[in-house]
Amino acid sequence: MKRQHTPPTEATDDDGFxxxxxxxIQKHPMIFTLLFLIPLIALLISMAFKWHYVFSDSxxxxxxxxxxxxxxxxxxxxxxxxxxxxxxxxxxxxxxGGIVGIFIGLYxxxxxxxxxxxxxxxxxxxxxxxxxxTSLLVQATQSLNTLMIDVSGKVNEKVQLMEGTTExxxxxxxxxxxxKNQGNNLLVLSNxxxxxxxxxxxxxxxxxxxxxxxxxxxxxxxxxxxxxAEALQRDATDIENKLKEVSIYLQNMGSDAKVDYVTLNxxxxxxxxxxxxxxxxxxxxxxxxxxxxxxxNALLSNLDSVPHHNRFLVPSNTTDVDNPQAYLVRQLxxxxxxxxxxxxxxxxxVTKINKTLPIQLFISAPxxxxxxxxxxxxxxxxxxxxxxxxxxxxxxxFLTDDPHIVASMTELFYDYENDAQMNTKEFIRPLV
Length: 432
What we know:
Among the domains are: 17-64 and 76-144; 197-243; 254-292 and 354-367 and 374-420, no CATH class. Helix content is 54%, strand content 12%. The chain has helices spanning 9-14, 17-27, 29-56, 58-62, 81-89, 92-158, 165-182, 203-209, 222-252, 274-282, 324-345, 403-424, and strands at residues 67-68, 71-72, 159-162, 185-189, 259-264, 288-292, 311-315, 349-353, 359-365, 377-382, 397-400. The strands form three sheets. The protein has a seven-stranded mixed sheet, with helices on both faces. A hairpin with a 2-residue loop joins strand 1 and strand 2. Keywords: Membrane, Transmembrane, Transmembrane helix. The chain crosses the membrane at residues 31-53, 92-110.
């Protein structure tokens, strides 16, 4: 049953007509006297005289007196000729209308004040209710903040955030070692078939990998820069070799575990070429690609107007390269083709997909229905394909052994793999 709202008795008594009128008189005595009381008394007196003249002394009232020889010829004049004339010309209907109008105005004023009081009371109640709700909201927010701090602490226990190629390569190495030591599946979802395939050409990542800030390479020679870029390339190659070694190891052990690698298609598929499309997103109109010579003692070119994350340097033995960007794209494409070929020759299952990845994964996934307790491990690289290595600029990646997260990422990996396989199958309707 719907509950009826009953206002308090005190409030109902306060809203009485006479009570409000009395309050108005107390608050505004001068206005009440000038605008209501004096006009009402004047109208009532005028009405009384008019009533007396018309009904009690009709003959005198209806006689037509005038001024003769400068004198008023009414021998029994009331008060004075002026007052007498004023009363003669008064209209009874007008007097009645004026009196009624004054009372109507008074009623309207009292009703308006009553409505204003009700609104004020309602607003006060709303304010009290808002204060109460605000207080409850503040308490809830404080409780939520406490909960979020607690949850954040638990998340940080399960997820190790990583930034930069050094931390990332160390995380991938841990995943590969976990797969080898526990006999887990090693699953890789990556835009490039080379581990961190584009990073050695990007000034920002080369500097970070060397423990420097990009501006600290401002006065570096091309030879010095080449040594730092080669160090990053060497560390990434070491990770690739570990991955290949795990594949060979699992095959020699006769393990049911396998190495699956999903990467962008190195060949055109219909009207699209997935890998070149990805490179087109990386090397957009904001990017500057330069060449340098690994053995030269000349300083790197000074390009203060170009942000370091948009600056790419590719080594070249030739003195002149007409189009450094096309030169780098060709080199990356050749590396993609060669890396896929090498993995396939080692028995690694390589699945090619035709869409840029918004996420990249390296997973040590325990086998299903295998007796014993096996822990999974996952490196998740965040970001869109438009960034250089498919990573966001701030939160680059995280490492986790949480079984729920690992299971979710494993399912995501197989979704991409199965989607790619479904898109390459041909379905032929049986001929009857």
